[in-house]
């Protein structure tokens, strides 16, 4: 599902809301999650999962084409851990 499909689904399920308002709500939710993660905070959606940021240390990697050693800088990457309810639904429980 992509963002526009999510917006359409919510708008269809809530005919009393204008689609532009639903779009604004969805965009606000995503922006808040992004802003929280940019600050290094953890975002937990009960039953769905938790988003967090993990730090990857600098390391020496290899260029796959030449095999030459390459310095890889330290970076922060998003991490998602599924919630119990989501795992149970995916596994048919």
Automatic annotation (TrEMBL):
One of the GO biological process terms: regulation of DNA-templated transcription
Cross-referenced CDD domains: IHF_B
GO CC list: chromosome; cytosol
One Pfam family of this chain: Bac_DNA_binding
InterPro entries: Hist_DNA-bd, Histone-like_DNA-bd_CS, IHF-like_DNA-bd_dom_sf, IHF_beta
GO terms, molecular function: DNA binding; structural constituent of chromatin
Superkingdom of this protein's organism: Bacteria
Functional summary from the UniProt entry: This protein is one of the two subunits of integration host factor, a specific DNA-binding protein that functions in genetic recombination as well as in transcriptional and translational control.
Family from the record: Belongs to the bacterial histone-like protein family.
Record protein name field: Integration host factor subunit beta
Upper lineage: Bacteria, Pseudomonadati, Pseudomonadota, Alphaproteobacteria, Rhodobacterales
